[in-house]
Amino acid sequence: MILPRVLVLFLIVCLCRADDICQGNTGIQWLADPNDCSVFYLCFNSASFKYMCPINSVRDFITKACVPKGSKYDTCTTKEESICLPDDRLKAHPTGNCAKYVDCEMLLTRAADVRSATKECDYPMLFDEATGGCQVPELAECGTRSVPKNPCEYEANQCKQGHCIPCYIRFPSCDGLPDGLNAWKGREDSPYYVLCKSERVVYHGQCSNKAMTQLFDPKERVCVKQSQ
Q: Of 40, 71, 102, which one is at a domain's C-terminal end?
């Protein structure tokens, strides 16, 4: 299909690497962004390049061009908005993990796209489908959505600009650890410890020692005096 010249908008290209979405692909392939109608990716084997349409326009895969948002050529926005019904306030994100949800008021009344309307519960809270709000993990109903446990699975704790201390250094993980006090993975033989429950971080800190005279013992799972 050839669109009228007046409706075809040239792509604005953001030559940003976004390798995760193309992992495992071979050859050349165009992939849609699952959360944003104005974004898609050109995959070259497992490497990818991100393409962004101008403001108020969305992708069209038939012409490989951008078309005005809401026009008769827009086949993406309608699909996005169907996530929410008119009376919905907050809705579980259809493709995200159990910590993510969609602000339906923002999506339906403020001309926002799914990406900008996507929100996230604070760690370790999860979005409960039944109550439509963030709940403690023990009470949250996640349905078929994946359930994040590690602090670094939450976007709020990740490096968005690429110029910060990596999340796994700033936050501990309780993956595979029993309930109670445990040594901080990656900071063994130090005063640092983590309190775990159901493989989630409840608290993290260090032994109280002003002169660095205590270490956390991973076997005894307590703070002990450092041997001289």
A: 71
Contacts of 70 (CB under 8 A, 6+ apart): 77
Q: Which SS3 state, helix, strand or coil, does residue 127 take? A: strand
Where does a domain end: 53, 71, 89?
Answer: 71
Tell me the residue range of the domain where 183 lies: 172-225
Tell me which residue of 128, 144, 126, 124 sits closest to 194, measured CA to CA: 124
Q: How many domains does the chain have?
A: 2
Domain assignment present for 103: no
Is 24 exposed, middle or buried, given 0-12, 13-18 or 19+ CB atoms closer than 10 A? exposed
- pLDDT in single tens digits along all 228 residues of the chain: 444 443 444 444 454 444 466 766 666 777 777 778 888 888 876 677 888 888 888 887 666 678 888 777 776 765 555 678 888 889 998 877 999 999 988 877 765 677 778 899 999 999 998 899 999 999 999 988 899 999 999 988 887 666 678 888 899 999 999 999 999 999 999 999 999 999 999 999 999 866 668 999 999 999 998 876
Q: Is residue 130 part of a domain?
A: no
